[in-house]
Specification:
Length: 122
Amino acid sequence: MDINKVIVIGRVGNDPDDRSTDQARIVAFQVATNYRWKDKDGKWHSKTEWHSICAFGHLARQCMKNFVKGSQVYVEGRIQTDEVENKYSERQRYASIIAQTAKWIASKKKAKETKNQNFDLF
């Protein structure tokens, strides 16, 4: 059995971009997640990862309607890689998350208010 599943909880980095075609409605946006760690000297470091998200159909409409830059969101889906040729005729691979579930958690303002509170998502 194979499993291709990813869950991302982070902040929307840009307002969703509507890429509708004749066949389907497609919405794309970026989600940022942060990773923090302490080194052996006790100094804190952080790294931000950017995830490309694509949603289709009804889910795309919901993302377009509810997500704005800075919102905290929950996205569940699968990783898909695509290979494209750049302007130098070199092949490049890009990974994106094809959303199967996407939920709004909090606005930027609300997230600041609840930043120090502990809560369960599930």
